[in-house]
Specification:
This protein has 229 residues and is of the alpha+beta class. It has two domains: 5-55; 65-222, no CATH class. The chain has nine helices and seven strands, in the order ααααββββαββαβααα. Strands 1, 2, 3, 4, 5, 6 and 7 form a seven-stranded antiparallel β-sheet that branches. The longest helix has 24 residues, at 32-55. The protein starts with a helix and ends in a 7-residue tail after the last helix.
């Protein structure tokens, strides 16, 4: 099977509007034609990326929730918390937390209206093989921060879970137990967010409660919940 990693990286990181501007010589801000061309390029890129992800049995946007969780299972994750909740229009939804023993936590939630995955994230402490070689590992990370040589990060994994984890594994290693707490550990469903609103204390209470219902071994690996998050 040909190596499609480079092609997938290019598609996932592409900027369709910039590509359209390069072709037309006109900013999308000043041209409806450039904007329309950007939309066409974005659609083409999505279709090509989706085909590559299907071929590699990876996560894809709008993937049915059960299929999405099955990809996590093949990537070595185990469900450690599976909670039902009531979503939009009283729909029966699931909020699922998964754990991989090398130190990667995941949270996923369903969206039954479209038989799809509403959100999917992984959280980790990761140490690059060569912290100085940022050209190598900077393109592999997403949001997060570096503390004492450890990248405390997360990825949106509605798309390309296996691809993103493989990229990190190619340039470093996940760390378990976590030496650094995670400030943005996602342990709330979209219904929780709606209910909590701007009440940070209520948000923290829900987060602590859900953390407390994870298996003891997982809690110990993650360390204390950062109450200031």
């Amino acid at each position: 099977m040909p190596d499609t990693t480079g092609k997938l990286d290019a598609l996932l990181s592409a900027d369709p509007l910039h590509a359209a501007e390069q072709l037309t010589g006109t900013s999308y801000k000043n041209s409806d034609a450039t904007t329309a061309l950007g939309a066409m390029i974005a659609m083409s890129n999505h279709e090509r990326a989706d085909a590559l992800l299907r071929a590699s049995s990876d996560t894809r946007f709008s993937m049915p929730f059960d299929e999405h969780l099955a990809v996590f299972a093949t990537a070595g994750f185990q469900i450690v918390l599976d909670e039902p909740f009531t979503g939009t229009d009283d729909a029966a939804e699931r909020f699922v937390v998964l754990w991989r023993p090398d130190g990667v936590l995941a949270s996923c939630e369903s969206y039954s209206r479209w038989d799809s995955t509403n959100s999917s994230h992984v959280y980790y402490n990761w140490r690059p093989d060569d912290p100085e070689d940022t050209d190598r590992w900077w393109p592999l990370i997403s949001s997060g921060h570096m503390t004492d040589g450890v990248w405390v990060g997360d990825h949106d994994t509605r798309e390309a879970l296996r691809h993103k984890l493989a990229g990190l594994e190619s340039a470093g290693r996940f760390v378990s137990p976590w030496p650094q707490p995670h400030r943005s550990l996602g342990l709330l469903s979209y219904a929780d967010w709606r209910r909590c609103g701007n009440d940070r204390e209520q948000y923290r209470a829900v987060r602590r409660d859900r953390f407390g219902r994870l298996p003891a071994a997982v809690r110990e690996a993650l360390g204390a919940v950062d109450s200031d998050a």
